[in-house]
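for the recovery benchmark. tokens below, seq after
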């Protein structure tokens, strides 16, 4: 069976595209919303997000823990943030190779923001049968596309709740 190489989902958040971008483009904050990511460490200068910025993400799924190395590929404030995952390991990301690309797009709609999160499987050289077998072991029976679809929905739902609470707090204190 051929793999689904990309999945996406969207949600409307009652915040401006700039506010949503500011939060999502900080890799150290992703652990606030993601069901797997536990935060990140930026390598080098972290004065704002920029294309080429490298960070290492800490992740957890059940008892499994791992670290990834990622590079920002798009940093367009209020419009788009993306990064590619290109190394993985247990404590340090020592095994290089294309793994995945994550992208977030922001579109103003009726005073709010439509946020679209997309995961793309970058393991193009893996035969489908091998990827499907690996995926089912790593996710407890699902393909990564199915699994990441659920993770995306969870992330977007948590992001919406957190940002709308932040926005309410800002407007309530003025």
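predicted aa per position
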């Amino acid at each position: 069976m051929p793999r689904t190489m990309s999945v996406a989902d969207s949600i409307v958040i009652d915040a401006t595209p700039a506010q949503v971008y500011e939060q999502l483009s900080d890799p150290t904050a992703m652990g606030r919303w993601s069901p797997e990511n536990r935060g990140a460490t930026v390598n080098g200068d972290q004065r704002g997000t920029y294309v080429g910025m490298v960070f290492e993400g800490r992740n957890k799924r059940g008892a499994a823990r791992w670290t990834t190395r990622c590079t920002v590929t798009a940093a367009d404030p209020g419009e788009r943030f993306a990064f590619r995952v290109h190394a993985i390991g247990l404590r340090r990301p020592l095994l290089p190779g294309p793994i995945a690309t994550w992208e977030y797009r922001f579109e103003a709609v009726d005073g709010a923001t439509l946020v679209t999160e997309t995961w793309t499987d970058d393991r193009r050289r893996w035969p489908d049968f091998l990827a499907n077998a690996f995926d089912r072991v790593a996710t407890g029976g699902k393909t990564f596309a199915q699994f990441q679809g659920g993770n995306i929905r969870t992330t977007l739902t948590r992001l919406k709740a957190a940002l709308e609470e932040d926005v309410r707090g800002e407007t309530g204190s003025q």
